[in-house]
Every structure is written in structure tokens, then in C-alpha cells.
Amino acid sequence: MSLLSGSDIAELDEWITQAANSELKSFANGIARDIDAVRAAITTSWTTSPVEGQISRIKAIKRQMYGRASYPLLRRRVLLAA
Questions:
Q1: End-to-end CA distance of the chain
Q2: Which of 5, 13, 19, 64 could cross-link to 28 by cystine, CB 3.0-4.6 Å?
Q3: For the Transposase IS204/IS1001/IS1096/IS1165 DDE domain, which residue ranges apply (predicted)?
Q4: Model pTM?
């Protein structure tokens, strides 16, 4: 299932061109640098939303343990929290 049509992709290219001459220049340049990934993100139905919560949980545990314990203890705590 495609989320955007060919004309939408053309409009994206046109927007990037227009934005490159405005105060959004830096943002537009960033999108243009990685245009293949941007097109893939908006034309496919794949998402990482289900794993974002897990990533946030692991990062929170990692921040709590920073400088306090060794890697084996951090690994054990992450696995036990799952």
C-alpha cells in the first residue's frame, strides 16, 4: 500500500526546491541529503512504533545505571525488566 502517489512525490521535490530558498534552507537540505530514506518512509506502511517503547525503557535503565555497575549487571537488569 502506497501512502503517496507520483504527483505527491513531485510535490515533495518542488517543496524542497522552494524551501531551499527560504528560512527552511537547513531543513530542506537535510531532507534532500537523505531523500531516498524520506521517500521510503512516506511511501511504505512500515513503522518502528512498536519498538520505540522498548528502546525508551532500555535507555532509562541505562541512564539509571550509568557509572554504577558493570556491563553484566546492566545486561541482567535489562533482560529481567523485559
A1: 33
A2: 19
A3: 11-77
A4: 0.48
